Each structure stands twice: as C-alpha cells, then as structure tokens.
Amino acid sequence: MADETIYQYLLREGVSRRQFLKICGALAATLGISEASPLLAAGLARPTRPTTRLVAEALASKPRVPVMWLNFQDCTGCTEALTRSLSPTLTDLVLNKITIDYHETLSAASGVQADENKRMMMETYAGQYLLVVEGSIPTGANGNYCTIGGRTAVDLLQEAAAGAAAVIATGNCAAFGGIPMAQPNPTGAVPAYQLITDKPVAHIPGCPAIPEAFTGTLVNFLVFGKLPELDDLNRPITFYGTTVHDRCLRRPFYEAGKFANSFDDEGARKGWCLYKLGCKGPTTYNACAGIKWGGGLSFPIQSGHPCLGCSEPNFWDNGGFYQGQSAPISRPTITVAGAALAAGAVIGVANAAANRLQKRHADADEEITESLSG
Amino acid sequence: MSTTTAPEAPARAAMDSFIHTTGSWVASQLDACTRCGICAEACHFYEATGNPEFTPVWKVELLRRAYEQRFTLTGRAKLAIGLDKPVTDEDIRHWSTIVYEACTLCNKCAMVCPMGIQLGPLIHDVREAMAEAEIIPTDLVEAVRKQEEIGSPLGVTDDAWADRIEWIADEWEVEIPIDVKGSDTMVAFTSIELMKFPENIVAIAKILNAAGEKWTISTPGREVVNFGVFEGNPDRVKLFMARLLDSAKELGVKRLVVTECGHAYDLLRWTAPNMVEMPCEVTHIVAVIDELIKAKRITLRPGAFDEGGTITFHDACKIQRRGGHIEEPRNILKLLAPTSFKELDRCREESVCCGGGGGVIAIKEADPLRYKVFELKIRQMEEVGATRVAMTCANCRLQFTESLQHFGSPVKAVGLSHMVAESLVEEK
Amino acid sequence: MGSTDATLAFARGPLFYTALLIFIAGMAYRLVSVLLLGWKRDRVPNKGSKLRGVAVTYAKGLLIFPFIPWVKKTFRGNQTTYLAGGMFHFGLFVVIFLGTAHMLVWKSLLGFGWPTLALPIVDFLSAAAIVAMIALFVNRLANPVLRLISGPSEWLNLLIVFLPMVTGYGLTHHRLLGIVALPYENLYLMHMMSINLMLIWIPFSRISHFMFYFFSRTYHGAQAGKRAVMP
After folding, report:
1. Which residues on neighbouring strands pair with residue A166, listed in sequence order?
2. Would you state the pLDDT for residue B363?
3. Confidence of residue A273 (pLDDT cuts 50, 70, 90)
4. Residue B24 sits in the same domain as residue B161
5. Residue ranges of chain B with pLDDT lower than 70?
6. Which of B19, B31, B321 to mutate to test the interface with C (most CBs of C within 10 A)?
7. Minimum-distance CB partner of A327 among C28, C108, C116
8. Nearest-CA distance from A39 to chain C in Å?
9. Distance CA C195, CA A16 (A)
10. What is the phi/psi pair of residue A345, to 5°?
11. Which helix (H) or strand (E) holds A130?
12. Which of C225, C220, C46 is closest to B270 using CA atoms?
C-alpha cells in the first residue's frame, strides 16, 4: 500500500480522472506562486507545460504520503480553521482523500484503539510520514502539564518525530510557543523545533494559521517530496514573504497620514489606517492581506481591527495590542524615571562638590606660587 | 613673541587660573557650544587674515580643555584614552600670542553666536590665565609696570600730568577744575587724550563749563585707562580702579564720567560693581552730552557739520556694543550733520572693531595684524564714501589716526566731543 | 527563533528602558554639575531691561533667524552652516514631534498624543534633514575653521545623529529599497539600536547643547538687555 501512487489511491477512493485534473488545478493554484519563474509570473514567458500538468504528473508518479497530526497545548483553533475553510476542494482533499491517517481530535476511534492505529502507522510508514504539530509542548513539572494516555507531550512528540520525514508546526503555539509560552510561561512551554533538532521543521504560524498556507505547504511536500523554501524563521516564503502592511488595503491612508484615533471615530468609520490603534502590520509577515479569510472575504484590518502580529514570535509580549507599534515595549514609570533623575543629580552634586574642592586647591596653589615668586 | 621670564610651569599656573575662573557661568557657556564655527566670520582678525586659529571659539580652546578635563567625567575619560589633548607649556605660549595679539575682546562673536555664548568675556578669562602663567607680551608688561609705578601706562608722571593740564588750560583758555571737593561730577581722562588728543580734554571742559556743570578732575584719579584689564590680572585691575574710585569717594562726587576710553567704561560701568563697592554711579561722556542737549543745558548749532562731505560713525566695541550707548551718539550726529551723516554697512551692535582695542595697539608685534584688520574699516568707509569718521573712543581714534596715515587715506577721524564743542552756541 | 526579532524586542524593551534612564540620569548629572559650580550675583545697575533683552533674543533666535536668516549680516559668510543647520533642525523637530510613529512614542511616555502630519511631508523633511546633515559634514570637512575646531567627538556626534535618521528614513522606504536593502524589522532594529546609542551618548556629548542653549541664550539676552543693546 505504501508504494501506491497518489493517483492510484484516488482512483481507488472513487475519484474520476476529470475530478483528479480539477484537484490538480486547485493544487497548482496553491503552489503557483512559489514554483513559477519570475518570467512566468510577470507574463513575459509562456509556460512550456501547464502547472496543472506538472502537479498531475507528480501525483501520478509519487507514492501517497501519510500524515500524523498531534495536538498538545492548543485550542484546536488551527484544526478548526482548516475544517471550516471555504476552499472545499482542497480541504476535503487534504482531510479526507489524501493524507491524514491520524488526528486525535478528528479521529473516530478513541482510547486504546486510537493508540493502536498510531502505533501501526508509525511502524508501517517509518521514515516516510509527515508529522503535523499543533500546540506548544510543556517542559515544566517533567512535562506533566500535558499528558495523553499517561505519556507526556515531550515523550509523544519525540517518539513521533523519530520516524517522520519532515515536521510542520502549525499555529503560533507550535511554531513559536504562542499563548502558553507568553510571560510568565507557567508550564515551561516550548515550540516544537526546540525539541526536534534532527528533522526539517516548517512553521505555519498564525493564530490560527491560514488554512491555505497550511494546505499549500502540505501539498508542496506531497508534490515535490520536500518542504517549500523557508525564511529565517522557517516560514514558507510563498505565504510569509511580505508584511501585512505592504499588501494592506488601508496602506494609502497610512501614506496620507489619515489615521483612526479610536475605534468609533470618523477615521474608523471611513476605514482609515489603524496604525495609531496599535496595528502590527508593518512587522508582521503573513498572507492575511492577500489570501484573506473566509475564502477571500475579509481579514482583521479590513474588518476594522488592527493586526496583532499573530504570525510573529512572542506576539503576546511585544507591547500592548492597542499600543502604537513604534512605542517602546517597556518604559520607566514616573518613579523609576525620578529615581534615575535623582541618581544623576547625586552624581552631579558629587562632581560639583569635587570640582569646588578643586577650585579651592587651585586658589591655594596660586597663593603658594605668589608667595614663592614674591 | 617675546615674553617675560615665566614661572617654571606655565601650563600649571594657567590651569590653576582656569579652574579658579570656571564657575557655573563659564561651564554653561562652554557646554552650549556646538562647534558650528559661525563666530569665525564675526572676528575681524579672521575676516582680515583667513587664519582659522583666530576663530573666537578656538581662542578659548585651552579653557575648554581645562574645564572638560578637570571638571567633567567625559573630559577626564577623553583625556585618558587620548581623544583630547592636554594643556602644555607650549600651548600656553602659542595661545598667548593669539589671545593678546589677535583679539580686541570686542565681543562681536557673541552677537553672531547662535547659542549666544559670551566669547569676549571667556577670552578675557583665557588672558587671565596667561597673566597667571606670566606669558604676556613684553610691551603689555611694560605698560602695566608703568601704570603701576608711575601712574600711567604711557609713563606720564604726576608732575608731567600737572604741567600738561596747566598747559592745556592756558593754551586753549579753558577752565579745568582740579580736585574740587563737593563737585557733582568727576571726569576721568585717559593718557591718550592727554598726550595725543588734548583738544578732546578742551572740548569736554568747554561743554561741561557751558552747561554749568559742577565738575572736577582728580590728581590721584587722573588715569582712567586700566592696563590690568588687557593683561588679565584681577589684582592690578582692582589696584588701578581703586585709584579712581577712592578719589571719587574722597571728592564726594555723585557720578564718575568716563571720557573716551572704551575698556575703562566697560570695566567701571559693567564689571566694577561686581568686584568692588561703588562710591558713585558711572557714566560715559557721550551719554552726558546727549543728556545736556536734551535738558537744553547746552545748545548746538544744527547742521554744523553738514558741510565737508559724508560723515560716518564708528561704533566702539566697549562703548556702543558692550557699553550700550548706541543711540546717544546718533542723536548728536543727526543734530550736527542731519544730511551728511551716513551709517556704515555693519554698524551699531554689529559694528566691526577698529582692531586696536583690548591692548592690541600697545603691542608692537601686533602692528602688522592691526593694520591688516584696519583694511576692513577702510573698505567700510569707502563703501559709504565717508570723508570724516566720528567716534567716542580715544583708543579707536588712535588706531584710526595711525592706520589712516599708514595707508595714506584722506579720511579724517574726529572725536564726537570735539565736534560738539565746536558747534556750541554761546549763550548769555 | 529569528535572532532579529529577539534582538528587536530587546532593543525596544530593556535596552531602550536602560538607555532612557541613562539619558535622564546623564542629563541630570550634567545640569546639576554645571548649576552647582557657583554663580556670581550681578550687582550692576541696568541701563535697559534684562527681561526685554531675553524676550527679544529668543524671539530673534527662534522666530526670525531660522526662517529669514539673510536679515543677519553674518549669514553671508556662513550660508551652508545657516541653511543646512536650519534645515537639519527644522526637519528633525518636525520628524520627532509630528511624525506619527514618533508621536506614539511620546504618547506612550507622556500619556497623551497630538495630531500628526501626513507621511509624505514628514518623509520629505526627514530627507531634507539627511541631505542637510551630509552638507554639514562636507562643510565640516572642507572648511578649515570647522576642521580645526572639530575633535573626534564632533565627528562621532555627526555619525551618531546620522544613523537614526538614515535608518528611520529607510524604515518608511523598505519596500522601495527592498531589492537591495533590509527587511523592515532589520531596519527597525538598527533604528532602535542607533536611537539607544544616541540616548546614551547625548549627555556626554555636545548634542546636549539643547539644554545649555537656554543658559547661554538667556544670559546673552540679559547682558544685551541690561545694556539696552539689541541682543
């Protein structure tokens, strides 16, 4: 069964050839941005063969890749986002037709039965399956803050990662620690990559992750057998290559200096820039402004709320959500500033006292010189 | 530059003096400087020669070093890691030439400084340090010695003075009251007026007599010049000042009138009250004349000097810019020469110094520089086509007379008091 | 995790915090050191009014000369210094106080904000200020007077003020320069780092002239005022 190609598997699942080509088109659309050459993208060259065919050929020749999905300290928001995604073909494909063999939340089986499924999968597809992690992993109290079937999250993750071909950490929690890792991080939560050091890890951060970004990355692995090109934070450049600010529909208002000063003022009603309300768009790399949510319907800024920067590390601790992005993260209180002022003044007083003493010595010196010469 | 025998470590003596002078005022002024260099263009010595070392703020460089290196944490650190230079004996000798020969303490630099730093007084502080280190031009030392021992920097003895006054009174047939107790006004002349411009003494005597002023001159307080100021020695400044002020107290006068002497006026009017107890108020002769005219105690012939080509006015740095008598001479000139009076291009508080003040004229080594600087003045006068230039400072006038002669210029330098005396309308 | 983000958080957080405290303490040290060195009372009777002199000198210094410098005769010999210096300061003040991003910094520190100017205006003035700084630098290099009176710290001052301005300008143009230059947060990090460096540097350099300006200017006004001379 492991040697069966994706195409063969789909035929067996009752997918017609016509449907298969449709699927390939949908997949190609997801991949198009990253794989097309700049000349193609600019419309300066004609593709020698359609991208759809590229995908179709890959799916027809490549073996099916099984996926194992583990949930740790999470809210299942990323799974929710994926299942409620308005790209039905793709989601259906990913969730039901192609890949996911084990998903704790979605699995019909439970208890020992589910565990047994997982064990079998790890044995059968050792070194071939793709591991998806959702949620951060607690390391405090020997990992006992999160256990499944009596085993800690750390244990489960390391066991699963040992046989994986690659890892996708979805959501900010798995990628960067998310809310569980926010100050004061009571459970000692860490992101997945800190525990998995010998396998390639792709990050799909976001709170939740954009479903299209997740599926796109997954499909890339299915089609090309490898993770897509990643940035320095291991995020696929296709989806995380530009900032929200750069593609924001309110950007012209930023340039023109037209800002909403509160959530219910004239500026807010007119759809002006939310920078003053704390928008983190300028430093947030994500596809929100492009792909948007709900099938391209809207995204937070469009709906009137500033970007929280949820695809960036430590977004909970990088200053207030509603505080201007340029504002310092920490600032001295009046008391501390006053103490600094007082400390400086004390040094000043000491310096002045030393200098006055010096002046007195200089005067004495002058008198000595005078008496010597006189 | 030739100097007197200096103490073994001039730098140390100078440093002591710098530290002594540096109070909050000096520190705040030095800290305000942004090194913008605008003061350079204000300095007539820089303008005439283009020598960057004549930049006013560079003249206080040693004071800055002393302040920063001894009084501030940063300065100490900078000295320790070699980012700033220490003050050496060689530096003292070098800067001595600059501050004595290429600065008249005219303080025009303070008027252009964007921060308003009082560079003139700061340079005077540097001179004080030079005096403390005893690295002073020989001519200045000699003049100070003469004033200390003989009573006048020009070497006029008591007897010579008395003879000269008697001769002036006889020659011009004018009454000059000497040592009259209970007078209202004590007038103090300079040796320059006495020896070079006696007609100025005559003019002032005539004006005061015509106004019926109860005035006198004083034998012990006969010299208003104070070479201690040029040298920068506060003790001698006080000594020479005391001769005047004690006499004024002795005579019981209400006011001390300084005649055509810039630095003496600056010292007595604007500095002395902070150094010593003042027995009376101090004013300048040009203010007195203006006051007498306004009070109609003297009457002048309007337009008396309208004939004879354009007449202009040279603002003395210590009497106009630093003295505050900018309007008074103009009031008088507008009366005497309403049509032929023309202002110089840079005038009033922005005037260009004659180049002879601050003791520079007394230093022989500075002569070439002094003449060079005067070229600016000649150019200014040519611009307005002046044939005569009036002024209220005998030192300026000495520089003008000498330099005009040096350059063979036809312009005539005249004292304002002299002009007033000549146009007096005799009454009764 | 990306080192840039962690460093940026550090630069915006603890480092800025520390730099600001050093700035406050440093300025207090400077001010107190100077204030307590000892003042002499001025017992000289006035001819004019000191207060009037002070008022006039500030009016001239802040309202007249920065905008119409040619009324001042010294302007002729120092055109570069006047124009570039004026443009630099004007641009700097507009950017610092009327740029939206900077206003938000003030707002977070002071607790209140104010209306700001549109980005293109601020942008233009900051570019003008940068050009002015380059002109001032070249002028300092070329003019023998300025070369003479500039020590190592004067050159450093120029650099330390130049860095935040250039990185700040780059921040608003990271897309334009995107092909060759750095991403936003790298520029942001460099901006914050240079700001922190400048905050620490100011109390120990002549950039602190903004505080002592009020001493020397007031004194100058008083001196001219008491003599009834135009300051």
Report:
1. A130
2. 92
3. very high
4. no
5. 1-8, 427-428
6. B31
7. C108
8. 17
9. 63
10. -65, -40
11. strand A130-134
12. C46
Reported as a single tens digit per residue, the pLDDT across B87-113 is 999 999 999 999 999 999 999 999 989
Domain end (from B136, B154, B177): B136
Residue C71 has pLDDT above 80, yes or no: no
d(CA B61, CA B70): 14
Q: Using a CB-CB distance cutoff of 8 angstroms, which residues of chain C are in contact with residue B84?
A: 151
Smallest CA–CA distance, residue C142 to chain A, in Å, is 38
Contacts of B72 in chain A (CB under 8 A): 351
What are the pLDDT digits (tens) for A300-326? 999 999 999 999 888 888 778 898 888
CATH of the domain at B35: 1.10.1060
Q: What is the domain count for chain A?
A: 2
pTM beyond 0.90? no
How long is chain C? 231
Angstrom distance (rounded) from CA A288 to CA A298: 9
Q: What are phi and psi of C55, to 5 degrees?
A: -60, -45
Domain finish residue from A240, A262, A290: A240
Q: Give me A343's structure tokens.
A: 């400390």
Query: Is C225 part of the contact surface with chain A (CB cutoff 8 Å)?
Result: no
Q: Which of B4, B17, B18, B20 to mutate to test the interface with A (most CBs of A within 10 A)?
A: B20
Q: Does C215 touch chain B (CB under 8 A)?
A: yes
Q: What's the CATH number where A164 sits?
A: 3.40.50.700
Same domain, A130 and A101: yes
Domain finish residue from B136, B160, B179: B136
- Asked whether residue B284 is domain-assigned, the answer is yes
Written as one string, the DSSP assignment of B17-51 is HHHHH--HHHHHHHHH-----HHHHH-HHHHHH--
Kindly state whether residues B163 and B267 are assigned to the same domain.
yes
Query: B231 and B131 in contact (C-beta within 8 Å)?
Result: yes
What CA–CA distance (Å, rounded) separates B100 from B93?
A: 11
The larger pLDDT score, comparing residue A45 to residue C55, is at C55
Q: Which domain holds residue B248?
A: 140-294
The pLDDT-based confidence of A1 (bands split at 50, 70, 90) is very low
Helix (H) or strand (E) holding B216: strand B215-216
pLDDT at A2: 52
pLDDT value, residue B64: 95
Residue with tokens 């600059």: B98
Report the alpha-carbon distance of residue B186 to residue C226 in Å, rounded: 24
Return residues 134-173 of C near A (CB < 8 Å).
none
B61 lies in the same domain as B187 = no
pLDDT one-digit tens code per residue, B135-157: 999 999 999 999 999 989 988 99
- Residue-level pLDDT at A30: 65
Question: Count of domains in chain C?
Answer: 1
CB-based contact, C228 to chain A, within 8 Å: no
A318 lies in which domain range?
242-352
Residue located via tokens 């071909």: A165
Cβ–Cβ < 8 Å for B19, B11: no
What would you measure as the largest C-alpha separation in chain C, in angstroms?
71
Domain end: A240, A266, A292, which one? A240
Whether residues A366 and B20 touch (CB distance < 8 A) is answered with yes
Same domain, A261 and A200: no
Percent of chain B predicted with pLDDT > 90? 84
CATH code assigned at A327: 4.10.480.10
pLDDT for the residue B374: 95
Exposed/middle/buried for residue A224 (C-beta within 10 Å: 0-12, 13-18, 19+): middle
Closest chain C C-alpha to A218 CA, distance in angstroms: 22
C30, C108, C117, C212: which to substitute to probe chain A, counting the most A Cβ within 10 Å? Answer: C108
Looking at the 3D structure of chain B, how many domains does it have? 3
**ipTM, interface predicted TM-score of the complex:** 0.91
Q: What is the pLDDT of residue C63?
A: 80
Tokens found for residue A243: 């900032």
